[in-house]
Amino acid sequence: MTSAIIREIVGRGIPLPGDDIDTDRIIPGRFLRSVTFEGLEAHVFEDDRQQNPDHPFNQQRYRGAVLLIVGRNFGCGSSREHAPQALRRWGIRGLIGESFAEIFFANCTAIGVPCVTVSAEDVRWLQEVIAAHPEMELRLNLETMTVDAGDRRLAAHMPEGARRQFLEGTWNSTFVLLQAGEAIERTAAQLPYVTGFR
Amino acid sequence: MAETLLDKVWRLHTVRELPSGQTQLFIGLHLIHEVTSPQAFLMLRELGLKVRFPHRTFATIDHIVPTDSRTRPFADALAEQMTIALVENCRDFGITLFDLGSGRQGIVHVIGPELGLTQPGMTIACGDSHTSTHGAFGALAFGIGTSQVRDVLATQCLAMSKPKLRRIVVEGTLPRGVYAKDVILAIIRRLGVNGGVGYAYEYAGSAIEAMTMEERMTLCNMTIEGGARIGYVNPDRTTFDYLRGRPFAPQGEAFERAVQWWQQIASEPGAHYDDEVHFEASALEPMVTWGINPGQSVSVTEPIPHPEDVPEAERAAYWEALQFMSFKPGQLMLGTPIDVAFIGSCTNARLSDLRAAAEVVRGRKVARHVRALVVPGSETVARAAEAEGLHEIFQEAGFQWRQPGCSMCLGMNPDRLQGREICASSSNRNFKGRQGSPTGRTLLMSPAMVAAAAIAGEVVDVREMLR
What we know:
CATH architecture of chain A: Alpha-Beta Barrel
Helix content of chain A: 25-40%
CATH topology of the largest domain in chain B: Aconitase, domain 3
Shape of chain B: globular
Oligomer: heterodimer
Number of domains of chain B: 3
Low-confidence stretches of chain B: none
CATH superfamily of the largest domain in chain B: Aconitase, domain 3
Mean pLDDT of chain A: 97
Strand content of chain A: 15-25%
Helix content of chain B: 25-40%
Number of helices of chain B: 16
Mean pLDDT of chain B: 97
Strand order of the largest sheet of chain A: 1-6-7-8
Largest sheet of chain B: 5 strands, parallel
Order of helices and strands of chain A: EEHHEHEHEHEEEHHH
Low-confidence stretches of chain A: none
CATH topology of chain A: Aconitase, domain 4
Radius of gyration of chain A: 19 Å
Largest sheet of chain A: 4 strands, antiparallel
CATH superfamily of chain A: Aconitase, domain 4
Number of strands of chain B: 19
Number of helices of chain A: 8
Number of strands of chain A: 8
Number of domains of chain A: 1
Distance between the termini of chain B: 50 Å
Distance between the termini of chain A: 38 Å
Shape of chain A: globular
Radius of gyration of chain B: 21 Å
CATH architecture of the largest domain in chain B: 2-Layer Sandwich
CATH class of chain A: Alpha Beta
């Protein structure tokens, strides 16, 4: 039992300028009233889109984009996996940003959506070039840790543990964790609070 | 070599090193609620897996529960469906549920500690970012998403990378009218909302040692707002005294043996920290946020910064916040009219929070234009508050006394802001739309400051009312 190997994401991009964009903005709380993740894509950035008709997710020309280009501390706030689920169901397969909040990064990894960082300058450049040429094909490669855009190649970064989870197809961690077998019970048995401080 | 609590607890819970280089970490306590667990149980059912350690997971209902009438079925059919799903999942998988009316229901980060489930030296996970709260006891506690909830249910483990450690030292005595909430808001303001990414925070120093457990919980609760997933305080006599006699704490001689172990897991003098920062408690003042993230705050006597005082990299976010809030550079928060006052949330809805607010409210009246509500953190807190008559103090002043839940912290239940309302709130997030209205505005502050604002109808300095 494994998950798919993810080496490369190729396709068009969608730029989302701004820093500290929190998960309440990605998917407002009222849409969390459900026992499934189904249909969340319809409400991604709902309030921001209502307040800003020019929001990138309102623009027809970015439809079909697979790589989301974001600023600093993207996905801060709530641990709701509904945020990456909404983005993924909308069509996003990878994120390129200046930095990511930790729980958001872990949630993306757990559903097979890599988040890589590039320099602030490269984020700005990517956002501008995509806005000017939305049809441009981007190529995020996790083996070479590069982003190709037009004739430029940008250096991308990602913690090695997460990178290997994608390249080895082990990002669905349940299966990996199960492989520890009885070692889990052995670890538990050595914890005094598990054994009742006997 | 001297070790930190992080080093020791991490080592003791390590099942194995994973091929990816991450650690397979055993999770000692898993808390679940109705919002982030149903999809995890669904995945578990699809995979045909059981819950590996059903006695190490506990459930409650908090996010979607109405706080006025709890008559079932709930008016919100979706809320009802989520509640039913949790009840069924707990029954099918053998998990203890603290259901509505059980006497133990409440916000998950309020009930874990008060029931004695949260203990020093544990690893604690919950599908909620404010799980950092439990670090107040000297546990490594952190929020996770739903796929990771599935991991914990199926294996009682998570794949994690060990964070770096920053020691935050707060020395001195907090002035009257300045609370743990003000300390953490001041810390986040200085270190930034993403300053803690990649770090765990260890809070230390005489001001932290002097704090009660409930104050430490407020402090650790908002660690995540500073970007750090884990925040903790080393366990001490205050911790042990709090735990003694709690329903799920060790009892009798086992408790004494537990104290021995808890003392051993604290950080040792001379241990290595990746970073260290210092704060002086006596210099702190009541804090108020003016923006759309918890780092955008000022003390109540200080004007909103001018753009030239804001670092270049933060200027775009600064203007976005001012525009959303309809505030101006240089403006004082003092005197800002409010529409709603909310005392509640996993940050500030414990008995001591309600007492601090009641101290301000006693004998006074809520301003006529203000809608004010108090939402106790749990059924246990509500019972204790009612036993000492706090509910009457609030009600006589014009506050609504509600039933426990997350309520207007995140507006998933019917308690929401309307339109452009401004809310003085004891909660933890001032994000755009957080309190249920897409254009609603939140001013974060301590419960006593919220109480003072409710009375005055505008932001005031609570220290003036405590004289």
